């Protein structure tokens, strides 16, 4: 079941090909612009990139020339040879080439304790050096192994040297690279579709959320339509949690710094927290970065017995994280977020069942939201991080990680193991999901905390009268509703299932005489709890139909002479484009059933 992974696993052959292609890109650029300064060029999940300092700006109009040169280089069947050099030799080499960034890199390696570095040379069939780079290796044997039709330069972007705004601004060239022309084509098609589905673009077009410079970056403002979606998801979460035996709680948005100091969050998360508030005559207060310390205080507020466990405390709590401004990205990375959060206080004997109940909750949500592809990643600690990144309890780490492994295996869940990505207090499951077009998102988390409950004095009285410390399971199956809604916008391309759509039906009277009957239809639907509105006949029928389609309203209900006479509606399904005439009573009954079952597709049309 378990598979070891360093993250999003890429076959070694593809990784080597992409790494080699970065060298090809740099060689091509230097052939075309010999005075270019080269920096670094790593492989990434979809290809590679390389950062350059050009003497004169380039644009995407230069991409075809660079690609042509790259293919020429690949066709020359160059191979890689490696030279191991001392730091002094390497510095001398790069100074001789006038490559100041490479000199800086080598000198920094020396400061880190390195005494030798490796240079990889591309040589032609006669052994002539064609290009050299500072590199740790991992390449193809010959450039002929790189498919010449399997890559494409996709974009350029600005990038500061070593990510610091005070450093030189470079030009980063991105290359998509795959093992075949077809895989590249599939990826590029997905990218184009992703642009159409971009949640920032659709969020604006569908009037779901906005950002304001006056409010601040990373602080989304939900419009009435977006709020409907958020409320519907929260309602679903509350229903699911009520069935699962959760107890709902509410906690404040701020707390004393002493609370987060005691739990260890200040030590491990201070850089991700907003600065403290200095209040006259009082201690420092912080905006709440997570709910768990507050929930621990609720658990500790009165004596607990083994009969109280498992205790599942749930909250759609609002949290604040001080994300770097450069990392903010629409709803995907924000500073103000609503956590679909819960903390489960359990005995060791209860752990396995409770942990797997959370996994079942994931699977139930996946079915509701039509998430067909997912991967569960077991994030483990790294021994070198003990006492720094992770609590210094090596035996407890190994024990708890094995408990999670055992639970997942018993459940028959496939998972990958990822070292050095655990929470500071214990191992966790991160859930990677793929949208309908194949875009990957980190969605949910399920974490085990063996440290903080004891640290803050949580305890319960066991059957034998002894006091014990509970384990705590942190879980957020929908993550934050900001990120999750961003995912859903792209996943459904704005065509939300009926139960989630902000406006579920638009009633369109053919002409002015049909407006009063249309209002009767609107009243009948609203009495059944449907979200609907009438588009009056001030515009042409075709224009109003297009407006409803552009807003991705699931049903457009046209009312004309025939519909008035038959007490029916002409139902146009916006997704299928089919239009059928249905008695109004039948339409109401079918949509009520679709809403009750939260069906993914509409029954009519």
Structure characterization notes:
This protein is α+β, with helices and mostly antiparallel strands. Helix content is 36%, strand content 25%. The protein has 18 helices and 28 strands. The strands form 7 sheets. Strands 1-18-17-19-20-23-16-15-12 form a 9-stranded mixed sheet, sandwiched between helices. Strands 2, 3, 4, 8 and 9 form a 5-stranded antiparallel sheet that branches. Strand 21 and strand 22 form a beta hairpin. Helix 6 packs across helix 14. The longest helix is centred in the first third of the chain and has 21 residues.
Low-confidence stretches: 1-8
Overall average pLDDT: 93
Q: Which structural class do the helices and strands define?
A: alpha+beta
The biggest sheet amounts to: 9 strands, mixed
Quaternary organization: single chain
Terminal CA distance: 42 Å
Shape annotation: globular
Helical region count?
18
The gyration radius over C-alpha positions equals 29 Å
What fraction, in percent, of the residue positions are helical? 25-40%
Question: Strand order, biggest sheet?
Answer: 1-18-17-19-20-23-16-15-12
The tally of beta strands, per DSSP, is 28
Beta-strand residue percentage? 15-25%
Keywords:
five-stranded antiparallel sheet; 18 helices; disordered N terminus; 28 strands; globular; nine-stranded mixed sheet; alpha+beta; 605 residues; single chain
Topology overview:
Elements: E1 2-4, H1 12-32, E2 37-38, E3 43-44, E4 47-53, H2 63-75, E5 79-86, H3 87-97, H4 100-111, E6 116-123, E7 129-134, E8 151-160, E9 169-177, H5 181-197, H6 199-205, E10 209-210, E11 221-222, H7 224-243, E12 247-248, E13 254-256, H8 257-263, H9 265-269, E14 285-287, H10 292-299, E15 311-320, E16 336-346, H11 348-368, E17 373-379, H12 394-411, E18 415-418, E19 428-434, E20 440-449, H13 452-455, E21 460-461, E22 467-468, E23 471-476, H14 481-491, E24 505-509, H15 515-527, E25 532-534, H16 541-550, E26 555-559, H17 561-566, E27 568-573, E28 579-583, H18 584-597
Parallel strand pairs: 1-18, 12-15, 17-18, 24-25, 24-26
Antiparallel strand pairs: 2-4, 3-4, 4-9, 5-6, 6-7, 8-9, 10-11, 13-14, 15-16, 16-23, 17-19, 19-20, 20-23, 21-22, 26-27, 27-28
